[in-house]
Amino acid sequence: MFIFPSIASLIKLPGSLKIIVGVLIVFIVFLAGLLAPKNLMGTDHLGFDVFSRIVWGSRIVLQVVISATLVALIVGVILGIVSGFYGGLLDRLLSMIMDSLYAFPSLILAIAIAAVLGPSPYNAAIAIATVYIPTYYRMIRGQTLSIKSQLYVEAAIAAGLRDRTVMLSYIFPNLIYTILVILTLNIADAILTEAGLSFLGLTVSPPTPDWGFDLRIGQRFLLSGYWWLSVFPGLAIMVLALGFALIGEGLSDRLQLRGLR
User: Which residues have CB under 8 Å from 84's CB, separation 6+?
Assistant: First the structure.
């Protein structure tokens, strides 16, 4: 009942404080196994320690999410810069493909891809990466079109510099802050997407610990009074996603203050 006002107050914090609070939340999640003793959250129906499963499950979650977002970043940024710089038929073709992917709800598309590939952390990362490539593409393409029209870029092109040099030395440096904001916000959203895939059994197989999978198993025992089996994995998902979301919001606020957006 009191958690929503708390989240609302965090969102209203200044940009720098959002970044600090977000980093602290993520830091606490990473070091949970060192900051507190085990057996704080009881055991599950098989006798496994819930706290230990949450700590070890964070590694699976972060492995899938970080690898997926990095792949999406690399592919989306490269395609976005190339498409925005050259334009023409290539730009129209890539934009049509990305818009087609973007038209699907992200979770449904990720579920479809993961179901076709089969349940595994590697395939889940591929599914999540595919979902977020259009996000990077659309943002980077728009920024590239704007930067390309600047006088210093036009002067570099007129001076006969190679296209690769112009893209790497004149365009890409101006995209770094935008990329950082998209990355942190995408990680927050990807955590929820990974939890959804895991909840459906498309990421790991038992008894491998994973927050979404443990949430699904715990759901069976809610009516029996074993509330902690679902509540604690759900809280872990929410807290980690909130941490990265605050970092992204803080970076976005800082960029707005600097006039970069």
Answer: 91, 140, 141, 142, 143, 144, 145, 148
